[in-house]
C-alpha cells in the first residue's frame, strides 16, 4: 500500500499528517502560497518538525508528489477495474488518463514548485510510461509504442492541463472526454 515503509509508526503518522496538511493547503490556496509555517500550523506541529522531516519546501513538495504517484500506481496495479487489472487495455488506458486528470488540482501547482530536473528520466514518469505502453500493446495500438506513450502522457501534463482549465476555460470533464477520443484514435487499427 502507498506510504508503507520501515519507519516508526509515530513517524509515519506525523509524515502523513504533514502531507495531508500540505495537500489541503494546496487545494485551498495553491502551492505558491504554501509555506513551512502554514503546514506546521495546519498540522498542529512545530515548524522544526516540518524541516526535520522534509528538509525544505522543495522536499515537502516532492514528498507530496511521490505520495500521489504511489497512490495512482497502486490503483492501476492492484485496484479495481477499469483502472486496475481485469478490464480490456483500451478501457484501462481511458481510466488511467481520467485518474491522472483528477490529480491535476494538487499536482499541477506542486510540480511547478518542486525541483523536477530529470522529470522524464525518473521513476514516476518511467513507471507511468511503462504502464501506458503495456496498455497500448494490449489495445493493439499500431506504431512506435514508446513514442506513442510519451505523446499520450504529454497531453496529461499537469502544467498543460491547468493552463487548459484556468486560461482556456475547459472543464476537467471536457479534457477527460478529449483524452478518451485521443486514446480511441491512436489505438484504432488502420484500414487495410
Task: Describe the model.
- The chain has helices at residues 9-29, 36-43, 47-54, 57-78, 89-102, 104-113, 123-138, 145-154, 158-166, 172-187.
- It is mainly α and 192 residues long.
- It folds into two domains: 6-55, Arc Repressor Mutant, subunit A (Orthogonal Bundle); 65-187, Tetracycline Repressor, domain 2, CATH 1.10.357.
- Helix 4 runs parallel beside helix 7 and helix 5 packs antiparallel against helix 10 (172-187).
- The longest helix has 22 residues, at 57-78.
- The protein is elongated.
- Biggest β-sheet strands, sense, barrel: none
Are there runs of 5+ residues with pLDDT below 50, and where?
none
Q: Using the alpha-carbon principal axes, give the shape.
A: elongated
End-to-end Cα distance, whole Å, is 45 Å
List the secondary-structure elements in sequence, H or E: HHHHHHHHHH
What is the helix fraction of residues, given as a range?
55-70%
Count of alpha/pi helices: 10
How many β strands by DSSP? Answer: 0
Q: State the CATH class of the largest domain.
A: Mainly Alpha
Mean pLDDT: 89
Gyration radius (Cα, Å) is 18 Å
Q: Classify the oligomer.
A: single chain
Looking at the structure, the CATH topology of the largest domain is Tetracycline Repressor, domain 2
CATH architecture of the largest domain: Orthogonal Bundle
Tally of separate domains = 2
**What structural class should be given to the helix and strand makeup?**
mainly alpha
Amino acid at each position: 500500500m502507498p506510504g508503507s515503509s520501515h519507519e516508526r509508526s509515530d513517524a509515519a503518522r506525523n509524515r502523513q499528517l504533514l502531507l495531508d496538511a500540505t495537500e489541503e493547503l494546496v487545494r485551498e490556496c495553491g502551492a505558491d502560497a504554501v509555506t513551512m509555517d502554514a503546514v506546521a500550523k495546519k498540522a498542529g506541529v512545530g515548524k522544526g518538525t516540518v524541516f526535520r522531516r522534509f528538509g525544505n519546501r522543495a522536499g515537502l513538495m516532492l514528498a507530496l508528489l511521490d505520495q500521489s504517484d504511489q497512490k495512482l500506481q497502486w490503483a492501476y496495479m492492484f485496484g479495481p477495474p477499469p483502472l486496475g487489472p481485469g478490464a480490456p487495455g483500451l478501457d484501462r488506458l481511458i481510466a488511467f488518463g481520467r485518474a491522472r486528470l483528477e490529480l491535476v488540482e494538487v499536482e499541477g501547482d506542486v510540480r511547478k514548485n518542486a525541483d523536477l530536473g530529470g522529470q522524464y528520466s525518473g521513476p514516476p514518469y518511467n513507471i507511468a510510461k511503462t504502464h501506458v505502453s503495456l496498455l497500448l500493446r494490449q489495445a493493439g495500438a499500431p506504431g512506435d509504442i514508446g513514442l506513442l506513450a510519451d505523446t499520450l502522457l504529454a497531453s496529461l501534463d499537469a502544467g498543460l492541463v491547468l493552463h487548459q482549465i484556468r486560461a482556456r476555460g475547459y472543464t476537467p470533464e471536457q479534457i477527460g472526454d478529449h483524452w478518451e477520443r485521443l486514446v480511441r484514435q491512436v489505438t484504432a487499427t488502420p484500414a487495410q
